[in-house]
Amino acid sequence: MSNTNIWTEKYRPTKFEEMVGQNEIIKRVKSLVQAMNIPHFLFAGPAGTGKSTLALITVRELFGEKWRENYLELNASDERGIDVVRQKVKDFARTMALENVPFKVIFLDEADALTKEAQQALRRTMENYSTTCRFILSCNYSSKIIEPIQSRCVTFRFKLLEKKDIHKIVKKITESEKLKLSDEAFESLYEASEGDCRRAINLLQATSSISFDITSEMISIIGSETKPKDIRVVLDYALAGDFENAREKLLDIMLNESISGTDMIKAIQKEIWNLQIEPELKVKLTEKTGEVEFRMIEGSDDFIQLQSLLASFVLAGQGKN
Prior knowledge:
- The protein is of the alpha/beta class.
- The protein has two domains: about 20-155, P-loop containing nucleotide triphosphate hydrolases (Rossmann fold, 3-Layer(aba) Sandwich), CATH 3.40.50; about 230-315, Up-down Bundle (Zinc Finger, Delta Prime, domain 3).
- The chain has helices at about 5-10, 25-35, 50-65, 80-95, 115-130, 145-150, 165-175, 185-195, 195-210, 215-220, 230-240, 245-255, 260-270, 280-295, 300-315; strands at about 40-45, 70-75, 105-110, 135-140, 155, 180, 215.
- The strands form two sheets. A five-stranded parallel beta sheet has the order 2-3-4-1-5, sandwiched between helices. A two-stranded parallel sheet has the order 6-7.
- α14 (about 280-295) runs antiparallel to α15.
- About 35% of the residues are buried.
């Protein structure tokens, strides 16, 4: 088993046929590449769904062995100011391609991290150098990309990978690395990844460093995932009106298992729908978890907000709003 290679790179697909999921997107991009005249692309969707991989495959299919000389990749979350667009991007865009293809390709990963000023400068660059350069923009939220850029791109919206897609990738890795992964362990891996292929592969690699025989328990430990039964205990205490025990159990889970507040919120939100309470109450409690998560993201103290959420469960258990 290889310990030196990062598996996300080692097992990254290099051809359209090797990619899983996003079948319709791959089909449309492949047809454009075969015509040797692609437009500007905007790849939008969650992390770990194949946006960067598809951009890389597109460039390799266009330029063959000379793809490195005709390709510039920038991570906009690291270099997000207007100077990057004015210097690096413009300098690369104004030169001609070195292959038969009449344009170069610039890939801007996490483009939604670009400042508004940088996006405005990018808009002008896309206009001025459209004959010598094509842009592929990748982002998690297309709403953060200014409208003038969106209108200049063909937008493809990626979705989280389905279980069968993750299973196909994981099976290939376990066979290559000679790992044992039970069905139960795969279920835990898929739940922990939430459709994010990169996270699934990283969890698998981290767990394999402990043992070749991977269990569900190991994945839960490495992934810092809360066990549903532990969350259920917290919520049962709260609904029964026992705020003190619910609070203590919650603190115990967060400290002993190193669970962040936002991860705890997600676990609680999932478990709400398994509770034996009225559907209307489930809706109200789900709404409350969303409100608490927003406060956490805005900078509020995680534990105080989680205690507030538990208080809402106590009141719900008592039939109060």
